[in-house]
Amino acid sequence: MPQMSYILYKTCLAAHRGLSRRRMPVGPAGRCFYCCFGINMAYFRRYTTPHPYGQTLRAGAAAGRASAARDGLRALDGPFVVADLETTGLSVATCEILEFAAVRVSACGQIEREFTQVVRTDGRVPPFISRLTGITQAEVERDGVPVRQAFGDFLDFIEGGPLFFHNASFDRRFLQAAADRTGLPFEAQTHCTLMLARQAWPELPSHKLNVLARHLGASEPTHRALADVRTTVAVALAARARLAAQG
């Protein structure tokens, strides 16, 4: 609702409740001045009162998040993989995967193997991405491999196991785009440590990876994929322990 309309509504509502009639301009027959000019109280009530359908949608979304967190918690009972991507930006349509990283974790929480690979992107690495991640154009040209090779090696490493990301929806979009581009199948079941963290530590003001790292005393993420994966492993294991203790 526009700010002025909202102010008029609140003023009009006060008049109707008899809270400010001495200060209110009065129209014909003692009616509220604003009502005389067609401000419809029913309209304002309709569009400022939460609709039960919206409340139902929010409740359904919350239930879906809780269900996804339970699925993720069950997936942590056995061996699992934690992964991360660095990209040249946020849009799947215009940006590329810049780096893959993943670690395989045993059921008892030990890191067994690690994988990391820089991608030789089609476009140049944007300067702000180099500042954020430390991945330079020179590194891409020196160490990068084509995305099909990097993606194939990544798929071989994860072996279709339960796959965890922090904010999994972002990484999943880029992986699906890579699958579409390369023709390689991406069928791994993905889970989100962000959802687990929200269930485990609802009292925290934020569940970003750096906030969780400080809260848990884990290594700080650096926006290099492998370093961020190691932090995410710590989050996953701590969330598993906390949620298991909560029953």
UniProtKB/TrEMBL annotation:
**Which residues belong to the signal peptide in this entry?**
none
Q: Which GO terms describe its biological process?
A: DNA replication proofreading
In this chain the Exonuclease domain maps to 79-245
Q: Which CDD domains match?
A: DEDDh
Q: Pfam families given for it? A: RNase_T (PF00929)
Q: Name one GO molecular function term.
A: nucleic acid binding
Q: Which domain of life is it from?
A: Bacteria
Cellular component per GO, a single term: cytosol
Protein keywords: Exonuclease, Hydrolase, Nuclease
Q: Which Gene3D superfamilies match?
A: Ribonuclease H-like superfamily/Ribonuclease H (3.30.420.10)
Write down the InterPro entries for this protein, in alphabetical order: Ribonucl_H (IPR013520), RNaseH-like_sf (IPR012337), RNaseH_sf (IPR036397)
Subunit structure comment from the entry: DNA polymerase III contains a core (composed of alpha, epsilon and theta chains) that associates with a tau subunit. This core dimerizes to form the POLIII' complex. PolIII' associates with the gamma complex (composed of gamma, delta, delta', psi and chi chains) and with the beta chain to form the complete DNA polymerase III complex.
Its biological function?
A: DNA polymerase III is a complex, multichain enzyme responsible for most of the replicative synthesis in bacteria. The epsilon subunit contain the editing function and is a proofreading 3'-5' exonuclease.
Q: What name does the UniProt record give this protein? A: Putative exonuclease
Q: Which organism is it from?
A: Bordetella bronchiseptica 253
